[in-house]
Design a protein that fits this description.
This protein has helices at residues 3-8, 27-35, 43-46, 51-72, 77-95, 102-114, 118-133, 141-162. The protein is mainly α. The N and C termini lie far apart (38 Å). Residues 14-25 and 33-37 have low confidence and may be disordered.
Length: 163
């Protein structure tokens, strides 16, 4: 599978980093791929949550990993922008009650149980788009404030609603 195909493919069609062959045949594995790495700094703290909240946090983490992986991937800027546009569409489908991708399917229950706001998911995508468009190393204060709102505060608001 080429880099472009891997980036564009739904997570269920991507090769597992640990597997030498095969593709996941279980939608729950899509979320497990993201929270299963014990090396993650958020894995062990999430183990302390009650099961329902933990699953919601796993799904949120999976979403954040998905969009961040686009930003740090090897694809061209235009392909990355197209992939992020697809994620905007996935979030729209999620909030319309028609999630299509494994990660929004995992978020579906959480948005209803914990009142997760669509604007926060879109803000996270906005922050990733800032990474693609501009050099954020020495921004003006207003740009830095907006960037932090997108990449950190929105995740914090979603997390606080779940926890």
């Amino acid at each position: 599978m080429s880099t472009v195909e891997r980036l564009y493919a739904p997570i269920l069609e991507r090769p597992s980093p640990d597997a030498s062959t095969g593709v996941s045949d279980n939608k729950d594995d899509a979320i497990a791929l993201h929270h299963g790495a014990a090396g993650s700094s958020v894995f062990w703290p999430m183990q302390l949550l009650p099961a329902r909240r933990r699953e919601a946090m796993y799904a949120l983490y999976a979403f954040c990993r998905e969009v961040d992986d686009i930003a740090v991937g090897e694809a061209s800027r235009s392909l990355k922008q197209a992939l992020l546009l697809n994620w905007r569409s996935e979030i729209a489908h999620l909030y319309a009650g028609r999630p299509r991708h494994a990660v929004p399917l995992g978020l579906n229950k959480a948005i209803h149980l914990y009142g997760l706001r669509c604007d926060d998911f879109l803000a996270i995508i906005d922050g990733i788009e800032v990474d693609l468009r501009t050099d954020i190393r020495a921004p003006r204060l207003a740009e830095l404030d907006r960037y932090c709102e997108c990449v950190a505060v929105a995740v914090g608001r979603l997390s606080a609603r779940i926890c």
